[in-house]
Amino acid sequence: MDMKKILNSTLHLLYKFYCRFRLRNKDFSIISSNCIGGVMYHDLGLKFASPTVNLFFYPEDFLKYVQNLKYYNTLELEDATEESAYPIGKLEDIKIHFLHYNSFEEAKIMWDRRKQRINYNKLFIIMTDQNGCELEHIKLFEQLPYQKVFFANKKLDFSSCFYIRGFEKESCLGNIIEYQKVGKRYYEQLDYVECLNRL
Fold first, then answer.
1. Is residue 1 predicted with pLDDT exceeding 70?
2. CA of 4: how far to CAs of 175, 178, 180, in Å?
3. Is this structure's pTM higher than 0.90?
4. Which listed residue, of 46, 78, 120, 126, carries a Cα 20 to 30 Å from 27's Cα?
5. Per-residue pLDDT band at 190 (split at 50, 70, 90)
6. Residue 110 CB coordination number (10 Å)
7. 98 with 34: CB under 8 angstroms?
8. Cα separation of 26 and 162, whole Å?
9. Rounded CA gap, 38 and 51, in Å?
10. Quick check: 33 and 127 in contact, CB under 8 A?
11. In the chain, at which residue ranges do the beta strands (DSSP E only) sit?
């Protein structure tokens, strides 16, 4: 490992401990459209109180899910993998892409276990401009009655939107859980600990 990577890793380790020290509220559920929520839980040293870990939704499906969260979480997850290279689950009319699981069986076990931990009174919803997200999706996200943030690669005129710098030349955000040169992940441009403390 080169010195740059060692320095970056060390700085981020210090930042993680700083975030853990600042976190006052530890009883919350992050419902995210991709892996970001799981990374936040991991960095904060908390148990996953959400089923949306190591997976992603396409925008339309994610919005359906969060608009009727309790209903969809009563449904039995079905196998819709077919010819996919990774497991895909189905809840009635929405699909969940379990990108980082080895099998549908493993994904279902973890989904069922973690959905039981959801704190519906302290929800933080996260969505990004990735996977074909369009303006209509952002408008629907803006209407959700939850604490929320929408990560985008440019400034948008919506109160829930947060502009992440570094992807301006792209059509949407890239991998925002990658590290920046300053020892933080891209999404850590947002003070997400303060957002969680406000729940």
1. no
2. 19, 14, 11
3. yes
4. 78
5. very high
6. 17
7. no
8. 23
9. 9
10. yes
11. 29-32, 78-79, 88-91, 94-97, 123-128, 147-152, 161-163
Identify the residue whose tokens are 């809840």.
91
CA–CA separation, 71 and 66 (whole Å): 10
**pLDDT 10s digits, 83-142:** 899 999 999 999 999 999 999 999 999 999 999 999 999 999 999 999 999 999 999 999
6, burial (CB in 10 Å: exposed 0-12, middle 13-18, buried 19+):
exposed
Closest Cα to residue 33, out of 49, 5, 18, 55?
55
- Angle at the Cα of 66 from the Cα atoms of 73 and 48, rounded to 5 degrees: 65
Express each pLDDT in 23-34 by its tens digit: 999 999 999 999
* Nearest C-alpha neighbor of 135 from the set 166, 157, 159, 167: 157
* Bridge-based pairing state of the strands 88-91 and 78-79: antiparallel
Tell how far CA 108 is from the center of its chain.
18
HSE-up of residue 161 (Cα within 13 Å, Cβ side) = 16
DSSP one-letter code for 174: -
Positive or negative CA dihedral for 175, 13, 29, 139?
negative
Q: Which residues pair with 137 in a beta bridge?
A: none
Residue showing tokens 């440019």: 154
Q: Count CB neighbours of 194 within 10 A.
A: 12
Residue 96: φ, ψ to 5°: -120, 125
Helix (H) or strand (E) holding 96: strand 94-97
Structure tokens at 187: 């999404």
